[in-house]
Amino acid sequence: MIPHEIDEILNRPISQELLARDLTRLAYIAKDGTPRNIPIAFTWNGSQIVMCTTKNAPKLPALRENPAVALTIDTEAHPPKILLIRGRAELDVVDGIPDEYLQMNGSYQMTPEQRVEWEAEVRSLYDGMVRIVVTPTWAKLIDFETTLPSAVEELVRAREERRSA
């Protein structure tokens, strides 16, 4: 995909809604060669998905070896809305707590007092983190109203061809 096609998809209102959610599913290939798909908090900075993890997370050696990733951000309601993104993970080891980590955990239901306690606990636990930054190289929005999975689009086309024959 070329960048303006990706931007067009990611700038659609439904995509922007999905990019404002709390969790994505990060798919990658583990060191043993098997696939992994994990839920992880994220934030969208307007051009990249940013996730944060511990410096000792098992996914980091795998991402260093094979940075190709796929992300899924979706809803649970019918019809589901699904944003699929592919890209390469860039790893950025940082001292302290990245601002993105505090932002991405800001939408959970916490009282101001709970928020202060949570942030103090986080700051006492982590001496640093790793930012996993993904710049989209491919994107697809599926809303089952204006867009469908490609296999379903193919079936719809075939049905239309049969009807018009």
Helix content: 25-40%
Determine Rg (CA atoms, Å). Answer: 19 Å
Poorly predicted regions are none
Overall spatial form: globular
Strand order of the largest sheet: 2-1-5-6-7-4-3
By DSSP, the count of extended strands is: 7
- Note the beta-strand portion: 25-35%
Query: Total number of helical segments?
Result: 6
What is the distance, rounded to the nearest whole angstrom, between the alpha carbons of the first and last residues? 33 Å
Mean pLDDT, rounded to whole units?
92
Following the backbone from N to C, one meets helices and strands in this order, namely: HHEEEEHEEHHEH
For the largest beta-sheet, the strand count, sense and barrel status come to: 7 strands, antiparallel
- The secondary-structure class comes to alpha+beta
Give a verbal description of the structure.
By secondary structure, the protein is of the alpha+beta class. It is built from 6 helices and 7 strands; from the N terminus they run H-H-E-E-E-E-H-E-E-H-H-E-H. It has helices spanning 3-10, 13-19, 59-65, 99-104, 112-125, 150-164, and strands at residues 23-29, 35-41, 43-44, 49-53, 68-74, 82-95, 128-142. A 7-stranded antiparallel sheet has the order 2-1-5-6-7-4-3, with helices on both faces. A hairpin with a 5-residue loop joins strand 1 and strand 2. The longest helix is centred in the C-terminal third of the chain and has 15 residues, at 150-164. The two termini are 33 Å apart. The mean pLDDT is 92.
